[in-house]
Amino acid sequence: MAGSGVFGEIIDGDVFKYYADGEWKKSSSGKAVSIINPTTRKTQYKVQACTQEEVNKVMETAKAAQKSWAKTPLWKRAELLHKAAAILKEHKAPIAEALIKEIAKPAKDAVTEVVRSGDLVSYCAEEGVRILGQGTFLVSDSFPGNERTKYCLTSKIPLGVVLAIPPFNYPVNLAVSKIAPALIAGNSLVLKPPTQGAVACLHMVHCFHLAGFPKGLISCITGKGSEIGDFLTMHPGVNCISFTGGDTGIAISKKAGMIPLQMELGGKDACIVLEDADLDLVAANIIKGGFSYSGQRCTAVKVVLVMESVADTLVEKVKSKVAKLTVGPPEDDCDITPVVSESSANFIEGLVMDAKQKGATFCQEYKREGNLIWPLLLDHVRPDMRIAWEEPFGPVLPVIRIGSVEEGIHHCNASNFGLQGCVFTKDINKAMLISDAMESGTIQINSAPARGPDHFPFQGIKDSGIGSQGITNSINMMTKVKSTVINLPSPSYTMG
Ligand code: NAP
């Protein structure tokens, strides 16, 4: 059970503590933030509402701890990360339970998220040892006008304090995808978990605590992003922000100081289907890509752009698969579970009603009970409907019928987003040309968009993000190049 066994010390009464200076603490605010179970719509957990003074203290200790951590041998940093990964995997059950209760993640997916996170931490430790163990060596006479009188040695040094802010949908995985690269690179880390998902994150942080990381190196500040977020992101003690979420990221980018930013934001991932595509494969990928975790994935298929000539057949195939999706509580490992909050369900409903009013074809009846929305395929969607452009983050998928590939590419590129996209065709030449033409960070050929495997580069363009991640890119992003130049005497100098 969450907050029991080895996790007993992270809770006080019914309120989970925050983590600072190597200890679990109660906030002096005396206030708690409620985490609402999306299924029951009742308070499931409570976390501390941390104060600005507590943030200041955490930043001070993070700064101090980072100085000695940066001098800790790389192999030792890696050893601790491997230890944390093993502890995390060992305690997957209570963490998965928190994911089920806080964000209604289907039971099996909740366990998968924790195991995948442990694997990510281990991979990151190994990758860090390799790439941070290397530097470059340059000689001066390769640049015009220079003699060989300078040797330049470069290595990668940490940035300082990294602020990590993950979203609700993969709170553990998207927290460790920031924590592990930051730590292996010699940074300290302040985590602000999403409110829905905070308890899973606190358990994950305790696994790092149990692994024996130095005091103050990792901290976890809880509280509502709307209340504590600006203070954190504009804090002068922060040297880098790694954020994953929605439009909030755009606002943060405008307010943050002159520090490196890693922004992984929303998407409207398009699925372009050509006439020669294997429609069974497409239908299976639309189901997996559009409806896994009820569509609450940044890389979910969010609009299908299908050639008119094969649209009827494809829609029929998808419809028959939608009918087989199980709908219900996450504890029963249903395919479709309640969306994260009532406001999210209301937003999705708004998109559905707009499409209805403007004449979309409903392939299923629209049905909602509380936060639970039954999977819905909307056919004959047109560009004047909101769902053609907006990210529902729910189990509702629009189909736009296109008369040409160019029309599909045009729709994809007219979006403000540019995270991922996919194209289905048996013609690899066409697939490559379409991939080149789509303005998105990644194009999958003959498969639904996906973030993993976690070492692949992952990036969005336009409003979908800044920078690139994936384990190697994240480690590089959380470091800076440092040069040392050895100046030698002129070539006329003689040793004798
Ligand atoms: P969100 O509302 O933007 O929240 C993300 C995080 O920001 C949460 O931890 C939130 O804390 C925090 N936050 C809120 N206001 C803040 C502020 N003023 N300053 C600093 N932090 C603040 O996003 P979400 O609803 O959790 O996640 C869904 C979105 O994330 C979707 O748009 C999805 O596409 C995107 N996403 C993108 C990727 C990617 O890699 N590109 C991956 C996953 C999700 P609270 O929970 O306390 O408000």
Automatic annotation (TrEMBL):
GO terms for cellular component: cytoplasm. This is NADP-dependent glyceraldehyde-3-phosphate dehydrogenase. One of its GO terms (molecular function) is glyceraldehyde-3-phosphate dehydrogenase (NADP+) (non-phosphorylating) activity. Its EC number is 1.2.1.9. It is an enzyme of class 1 (oxidoreductase). It is found in: Cytoplasm. The keyword Oxidoreductase applies. Pfam families: Aldedh (PF00171). The active site is at 264. Gene3D superfamilies: Aldehyde Dehydrogenase, Chain A, domain 1, Aldehyde Dehydrogenase, Chain A, domain 2. It comes from the Eukaryota. The lineage of its organism: Eukaryota, Viridiplantae, Streptophyta, Embryophyta, Tracheophyta. Keywords: Cytoplasm, NADP, Oxidoreductase. Residues 24-483 form the Aldehyde dehydrogenase domain. It catalyses: D-glyceraldehyde 3-phosphate + NADP(+) + H2O = (2R)-3-phosphoglycerate + NADPH + 2 H(+). InterPro entries: Ald_DH/histidinol_DH, Ald_DH_C, Ald_DH_CS_CYS, Ald_DH_CS_GLU, Ald_DH_N, Aldehyde_DH_dom, ALDH-related_metabolic_enz. PANTHER family: ALDEHYDE DEHYDROGENASE.
